[in-house]
Amino acid sequence: MIGHRVPDRDGAAVSTPITISVDGEPIEARVGQSLAAALIAAGTVAWRTTPRARRPRGAFCAMGVCFDCLVVVNGRHDVRACQHRVAAGDVVESSPWPDGRVSDGGDRG
Amino acid sequence: MVTSAHVWSIDSDGVHVMVGEADGEGRESRCYRAAAVVLATGAHDRVLPVPGWDLPGVYSAGGGQALAKGEGVAIGRRVVVAGTGPFLLPVASSLLDAGCAVAGVFEAGRAGHLMRRWTVRPWELLGQPAKVLELGRYGSTLARRRVRYATGCAVTAIHGGQRVEAVTVSRLDASWAPRPGVGETLDVDAVCLGFGFSPRVELALAAGCRLDDRHFVMVDAQQRTSVPSVFAAGEITGIGGVDLALCEGTIAGHVAAGGRGDDSVLRVERRRRKVLRAFASRLQGAHAIGPKWTDWLNDDTVVCRCEEVDVARLRSVVETSESLSLRSLMLQSRAGLGSCQARICGRTVEELLLRTIPSHRLVGEGSIDRRPIASPVRLGEIAQSRAFEVEG
To answer: Does B56 reach chain A within 8 Å, measured CB to CB?
Structure first.
């Protein structure tokens, strides 16, 4: 199944479950997990809408290079979900721009 | 040892570092002046665009590896791995470990070509038992799990509405042009793509280091760059894997700290470096990108993911502009100017522009790697930092 988290193979204790909020919904994550991994494990593959074509995006490189996975975390904009380590009580908002608005308002012709 | 430290710039004042959470706010700004610097900034996957590669569920091969192996998360129920290079094998193996079904591993290089390039100077392979065994282990894992491995094949289209639903796999000719009409559709919900690696050379460029014609940092036998106080090790000097990087790093560190490169304590590292470099160049030759990969692009295939610039837009800018300047063509098309600063698409944009321009000449080629700010910094952090104070 998608997002299934494998238990550590050598039997080490699986890290503690915590709850974070994503667009108002609680999801379970684990201490030390990246936010991108927590979202994918919870079955979410897209959490950003592109400004121009309004296409869904999620993680792509998962190593901080592509900036596709940007989210708002605890009110802080432009956080790479793959670089943010989740902490209990994190409040994540997936789309910084309400529907119908374009990020930069610019006409790129 | 400073952890959670992000080097964002190197200039004549020194090495500028933000200490704190990645993408944080109000991090501590530090500037280090050092007699010597060793750069080991690594590389990230090169991913060639494919129609639909911007759909959620498509990951770079390294991304799939990071999520599967690093975090134990399955990125899909049924996944395909495609591209070129031996790295596809450990990625597939990690996906299996994380609980994904792997619908196939598709290597674009054709079997005959791979076999010839892999087995040139076979006596050299005898000196690399560890490397050969490692690849053999991945191969046998895939065989045991009955994962399909095909050469001369590529994912040439990715389909789906809001996420990946299927892929088209096509057979390729020797130049990587898809053979017409023989595509096969596979239902999958995730895709990993990797076509080798791009070195992260922005800090080396900022430090003034010279690059070779393949955009890697040039180093001498002591791992010293063209700037005498700056050393480089690992993937930024050539793609070679962790074992080679460790040898190079040991040598670089020893010399940077005042030792001699020909010191007898480095004898093992020097020998291993030589052997591992030979292995790396063997792979480089075997898994070079074929020139006709562009045949699988459509007009509306996204090239620059950040700025959502497609193939047609890039072409129309070339057609309507008389400029041969890479910078100017990027500014007009917006390709490579988004958040990732052309880290993902830069090489591709450069290649597509070069092919589209009638003279196949571009002014400022290679400068696409120049990024004065190497990792994200908030304006407020710069304002609060002492980075721009001039010391008396």
So the answer is: yes
CB B134 within 8 A of CB B125: no
In 3D, which of A64, A5, A21 has the Cα closest to residue B75?
A: A5
Which tokens hold the place of B140? 């046998």
Q: What would the pLDDT profile of B114-157 be if each residue is shown by its tens digit?
A: 888 888 777 777 777 777 888 889 989 999 999 999 999 999 99
The reply to whether residue B340 touches residue A66, judged by beta carbons under 8 angstroms, is: yes
Q: Which of B171, B196, B221 is the endpoint of a domain?
A: B196
Tell me: ipTM over 0.90.
Answer: yes
SS3 B297: coil
| Within-domain flag for B282 | no
Domains in chain A, ordered, with CATH? 17-93 (3.10.20.440)
From chain A, pick out residues whose CB is under 8 angstroms from the CB of B308: 50, 52-53, 55
Q: What is the largest CA-CA distance in chain B?
A: 70
- Count of the separate structural domains present in chain B: 3
Q: Is there a single domain that holds both residue B345 and residue B244?
A: no
Which domain range does residue B250 map to? 5-41+198-259
A31-62: per-residue pLDDT in tens? 889 999 999 999 999 999 999 999 999 999 99
A15 contact B CB<8A: no
SS3 B299: coil
A84 shares contact with chain B (CB less than 8 Å): yes
Tokens of B18: 């933000």
Contacts of B60 in chain A (CB under 8 A): 60-63, 66
Residues B251-288: pLDDT tens digits? 999 999 999 999 999 999 999 999 999 989 888 888 99
